[in-house]
Design goal:
Distance between the termini: 28 Å
Order of helices and strands: HEHEHEEEEHHHEEHEEHE
Structural class: alpha+beta
Radius of gyration: 18 Å
Shape: globular
Strand content: 15-25%
Largest sheet: 5 strands, mixed
Oligomer: single chain
Amino acid sequence: MNELQRVEFDLLQNFVNICNKLDLKYYLVCGSALGAVKYNGFIPWDDDIDVALLRDDYNIFLEKAPEMLPDYIFLQNYKSDLSFPQIYSKLRNSNTAFIEKSAADLPINHGINIDIFPLDGYPETSYAQKLFEVKKRIYGALLLSVYNVPRKGFSRYLNKFFNFIKLKNHIHFVSARFEKFISKYSSDDSLILCNHGNWQGKLDYSPREHFGSGEFFNFEGLEVRIPKEYDKYLSQKYGDYMSELPEEKQKSHHNCIVCDCNNSYKKYR
């Protein structure tokens, strides 16, 4: 592990310990699940950790975890950090800095972090699914408007309007409405479990049986749970995931302008 991964691994250990104490079923997902299967730990060039819980367990974690975490770890979401424009949570090490270019201007905690995603259900009928995806794109565009990302054509003018009405100052209301919308489809009985917080769209919609009771793997010496049918889950997301990527693709997808494992993000504000 490099220095950044060691900080993230500490956050993961705290997350897993709390889930075990509260008897919450979590899963390592996305590249973290791939890393557990392929490398028994981090993908060598990866710079994040992704975990997920069914919505009910996710809500219990949000309620109970703050009083169980050490002081230097902050549980971040749109409720605890009003300018955080997302529908999932992060654990942040407040004594460190990981400032991404797109979010550098946001007045939020910018510590090194891991992502905690809720898993929600999905509507059953084709019509309801199409309507759901349209509404989801609208909410997603509203949240994206507060980030500093390249924009072209109509989106540039739309973003100027969002800036004019100062949407950034009220983005937590958008996150709350978005969360209410996606969580109305219960994960308890849905045939599909959706990670709406990740950026890969329908690649993060998986049959319920993919997750199941989970399978335990070693991750840097820590026993962790990943989806039960991990081969199907990873194949859906990444294709031939056991093949090595070309060297030019072995890089992080985060555009980080400050990474400091020894000083707080507050030093850079």
